[in-house]
Every structure is written in C-alpha cells, then in structure tokens.
Amino acid sequence: MKLYTKTGDQGKTSVIGGRVDKDDLRVEAYGTVDELNCLIGQAVSLIMDDPHTSFKQSLQQIQHDLFDLGVDLATLAPKVNKISLAKVEFLEKRIDEFSEQTPEITYFILPGGSPLAAALHVSRAVCRRAERAVVSLSKLHALHPEAIQYMNRLSDYLFAAARWVNHLEQIADIRYESGLAGSP
Questions:
Q1: Hey, what domains does the chain have and what are their CATH numbers?
Q2: Which residue from 56, 92, 128, 174 could staple onto 110, CB 3.0 to 4.6 Å apart?
Q3: Per-residue pLDDT reduced to its tens digit, 88-129
C-alpha cells in the first residue's frame, strides 16, 4: 500500500463517514490532537530512568487516548464515545498525586526546567490549542462532553507533571516577575 493516494490534491480529505475540506474545523481539531500526541511521544522519548516507568506508561496510555479522541473527532456522525469519564477521572487522580508531591504554588511560573519538563510544558501549550479547536468544533457539531473535559484536564495534568518532574530532579520553579528589573 502506498502512503500517498492523491485523493487530497484538491484540498479535501477523508474522514469517517465522508469527505471534508482540509481546513474544516473537524480536521483542525483532530490534527491538533495529533500534533499533541506527537509532542507527548517526544516527551516519552526523554524518559530514561526507572523511577519514571509508571509515568512513562501513563503518558503512553494518554497517547492511546488521544488517538481514540482523534477517531471520535474524525467521525461525522459519532456513535461511540471512546473518551469516557473514567479517563477524565484518571487524569484528576494523577494531578492530585503530582500536586501532593510538589510545593504549593502561589505565583505564575515560567515553563522550562529539565528537558522532560520543558517538553511537557510545550505539550501543555499545544493541548490548550487543541482544546480550543475541540470547543470550536463542538459549537458546530455535537460532541460528547467528555472530549472537552478530557482536553481541559489533560492540560492541567501536563502542567502538574512538568512541575513534578522538575521537583524530582531538584529543579526549582522559576517565578514569573512582571517588568523584571534590568529587562529592555
């Protein structure tokens, strides 16, 4: 089977149940979710240590969940919701666990730290963009509410995970300071 089909050369693409324009909000939503999935895969590739094994497995499960979400978003007449409330609750549980293990935060922090934490922050930012695309799509087409809930919780999870990774690696959060003295 060839990778190219030439069927998209006129600006259309196939989705489950038909064809749409390549700039359709549906394609934007599942395409941004796919981009997020790639970035999380990049973060996974940075995990080398045994203490992060269960975290790596969690991120890989999230990658599967994002693929499932992409299928839901790419379906013109969604019948099955692959993103369940249990998946949202899993993220909430992990956020709580990360938060219990990191110092309380009472200020804005700059993204960064270790390479893994920085990759998680980039993933978080793209997750927020994906969430906005899913919300926009939901205004035009019926989506299961768990799709938006999952994306919202996932961005919080990625933020909490980045802080947790930095904490484990003994890298302090960098406090954002407005109008930092000496800046241009």
A1: 18-175 (1.20.1200.10)
A2: 174
A3: 999 999 999 999 999 999 999 999 999 999 999 999 999 999
Sign of the Cα torsion 82, 79, 131, 46 reads positive
Place of tokens 């804005």: 108
- Amino acid (1-letter code) at residue 51: P
pLDDT tens-place string over residues 69-91 = 999 999 888 667 889 999 999 99
For residue 1, give Cα distances in angstroms to 4, 5, 170: 9, 9, 49
Give the residue among 63, 65, 73, 66 at the shortest CA–CA distance from 16: 73
3-state secondary structure 39-93: HHHHHHHCCCCHHHHHHHHHHHHHHHHHHHHHHHHCECCCCCCCCCHHHHHHHHH
pTM, whole model, 2 decimals?
A: 0.91
